[in-house]
Amino acid sequence: MEPFRMLSLMIFVILLPSAVIAQYGFCTATNGRRGECISTSKCKTNGGSSDPANLCPGDNSIQCCTYRTCTNTKGVGGMCQPTATCNGNSDPANLCPGPNHIQCCTSNGGGSSNGNLPGLDAVQSKYARIIAKTARDYGLPIRGCEVAIVTAIVESNIRVYANSKVPESYKYPHDAVGKSL
What we know:
By secondary structure, this protein is α+β, with helices and mostly antiparallel strands.
């Protein structure tokens, strides 16, 4: 009977942590991102952000933990979130912080059928991917990549311009022609 008790105890010890973690469930934060109800300290350790809006059961230390945006291995943008809350495709390639069940979730089609990033046309998507790859190559944090892409959108609508007042600029690859002020 002793081996049976030992086996029962081992199973209990193994299953208890997962039951404790799962008891709080999943949530949708005030920023619209899907997350999990975990302690604020665990969220911080996992690289997430806690939403204090009382979205989870338990005391004030249990909050909705969400994670950053991501780009999957096909170059499609998505959100790091629990796989159980992903209504599209989860990419298990370790693209997100936290435990293994936090993965990069993209829409069912993996993006639009033409491969463009959300809200961008083909030319803009091409340059946004170049910016993202360069940011990764230089080891910049995700925020640096986001700032670079937003700056490119604001400054040039993510296009390469030739200058109508500088004839030499036409010799280089360009998507549009701009004017000097």
